[in-house]
Amino acid sequence: MRMRDITDVLEAVAPLHLQESYDNAGLIVGHPDQEVTGVLFCLDSTEAVVAEAVQKGCNLIVAHHPIVFRGLKRLNGHTYVERTVMEAIRRHVAIYAIHTNLDNVLRQGVNAKLAERIGLNDLHILAPRPASTDTGAGMLGQLPQPMHETDFLAHLKKTLHAGGIRHTALLGKPIQRVAICGGAGSFLLPQAITLGADAFVTADFKYHEFFDADGRILIADVGHYESEQFTAELLRDIVQEKFPTFALHLTTLRTNPVFYF
User: Fold this and answer.
1) Average pLDDT of the segment spanning 161-188
2) Which residues are paired to 248 by β-bridges?
């Protein structure tokens, strides 16, 4: 099996043209016609993940985050990005990233997986692209039953294995209509408020951005890694549906660079 056989399956779900202009999704290291011995799925491709791929007999890493994002001017091992790329090349391991294009699809995307973990149904794109109802940023859904705010936060902490949740002041009203965005989603706060969400679950809110809730919505910042950690499982399942007997592995490494004391 060739690289393109795997990537074609992924791109059928999340075409590359759906990625944002600033992104770098696609085959970052490797050649489309290279034969694949096994695939390792992860959130972040790091030096340790490359070593894990080699140990498991995999020569293709499928990651959500692109290891090369802002471009490389040199390869001398000075940064972890350079070292990861150099090690991947040295070990003949290809790296493929499926990033904002996977964020921007309604079905089988990052937010659909996050919604599944939280238990949301009746899903819709929060900020649809022009003339589209199934592509765009974020997602809006409903809990089966309203939840007390503290119960909802406890539910998030448990289901997303969150070390801690930063949130705005409790509003004294039940949570049922929930907006979500895996990763950094503060730019979607206006849409979440306009569409009447009781809560907005996302990550990477800055201090002053919490003020923008202005008593209209509960912001729950669960952490970037925590909101996207199940993406590797999602990607494995997409490929496994097409190639059920091929060597597909989930990383066993926790690549979250954020720790809680």
Assistant:
1) 97
2) 39
User: Is residue 71 predicted with pLDDT exceeding 90?
Assistant: no
Looking at residue 187, its pLDDT comes to 98
The number of residues making up the chain comes to 261
Strands (E), 30-83: 39-44, 60-65
Model confidence pLDDT, tens digit, residues 160-171: 999 999 999 999
Q: Where are the domains of the chain?
A: 3-101, 104-227
State how far the Cα of 189 lies from the Cα of 212, in Å rounded to an integer.
8
pLDDT in tens, 196-245: 999 999 999 999 999 999 999 999 999 999 999 999 999 999 999 999 99
Instruction: Tell me the pTM.
Output: 0.95
Fold (CATH) for 104-227:
3.40.1390
Q: How far apart are CA 98 and CA 158, in angstroms?
A: 27
Answer for the pair 33, 8: CB distance below 8 angstroms, yes or no. no
Topology of domain 3-101, per CATH?
Answer: 3.40.1390
Beta strand residue intervals within the chain, DSSP E: 26-29, 39-44, 60-65, 94-97, 121-128, 136-147, 166-167, 175-184, 199-203, 218-221, 248-250
Residues 118-154 pLDDT 10s = 999 999 999 999 989 999 999 999 999 999 999 999 9
Three-class secondary structure of residue 215 per DSSP: coil
CB atoms within 10 A of CB 159: 16
Distance CA 79, CA 116 (A): 36
Distances, alpha carbon 11 to alpha carbons 65, 207, 215, in Å: 15, 36, 40
Angle between helix 3-13 and helix 231-242 axes, rounded to 10 deg? 110
